[in-house]
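S.,

As promised, the oxa(dethia)-CoA run. Input:
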Amino acid sequence: MSIKYYAKVSGTGMYVPDKVLTNFDLEKIVNTSDEWIRTRTGMSERHIAAEDQAASDLAYEASLKAIKAARIRAKDIDMIIVATISGDHPFPSTACVLQQKLGLKGFPAFDVSAGCTGWIYASNIAKQYIENGIAKNILVIGVEILTKITNWKDRGTCILFGDGAGATIISRAKPKDISRFIDSELSADGTHYDLLIQNAGGSRMPATKETVEENLHTVYMEGNKIFKNAVRSMYSACDIVLRRNHLDVHSIDWLITHQANLRIIQALGKKLKINDKKVIVNIEKYANTSSATIPMALDEAIRNGKIHHGDLVLLASFGAGLTSGSLLFRV
Ligand code: UT7
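Predicted complex:
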């Protein structure tokens, strides 16, 4: 009889750069206002990476905290998965750069590109590797420095993003451990791949002087269309795992969704009929850090004592692709 293994989150950590950019600072850069940004998005400030900081630098700091929280040694890690769309280089993967920074080698390290759903995609992959018995401690990170690929002349996008990293250690649970991953659902709808895109810099449109001058290496987004899709796709991902596990929404202790817009978070909470007090929100401090929002919010909620051992947590995200997904686990 084959042994059944379970995955669990055994440690979390986060890191944000020191520099803070407030809505009032943004008023000096583009035609916007603190009032517009707060009422339309729920954001007040965001952290911005220094010129010499790349994604792996942020990921490294967050990883050290997660390793410590998991009470393991770095050398106990047997896989690294980095979810990012703003890695150090187009190649090699940021996971390999991070592996070198951590002084490790000799096991798989790779990146996952699934936009803001990246950490949920990466955690779902990690879950498979733990459950099939191949890996024991996987370092899963969501990290972004989107402010380096932001068009600072476009008020529709430049006010939205911040930089940060959220790291988690996903480990094999002990047989009697109540902490474990329960279920996860992933999806994508490529028919809308062009609604949120970095147009230039790949093989479709290699970098030229013109592409740089026309700002084609920065984030292009049709925010309004994505907004409508966001609530629908996250609701569907949550509904599927709740139904599949015969769970009522009232049994969920905490809901953490991608922090892209407070109105989206509230609309999802309302549609799911979950108590507001169970919805974790930190968008006001960090804005949209893409694949990092969920692991950052999870780490913060565990460290500030909101989320406790044994709590049932539902995570949901959506993003470029258009991707979406959910993850249900007991802390
Ligand atoms: O994380 C990845 C997924 N991305 C998202 O989830 C983003 C989802 N979308 C959103 O969060 C929202 O669509 C935005 C926050 C991006 C925009 O909010 P909105 O309520 O959809 O605004 P809108 O784009 O419909 O624009 C409304 C008005 C427009 O002016 P007019 O045409 O009505 O005169 C915009 O030009 O607001 C104007 N506007 C601004 N005004 C002040 C757009 N950006 C700004 C700004 N400051 N920064």
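DSSP finds eleven helices and 14 strands in the chain. The chain has two domains: 7-172, 180-330.

- D.
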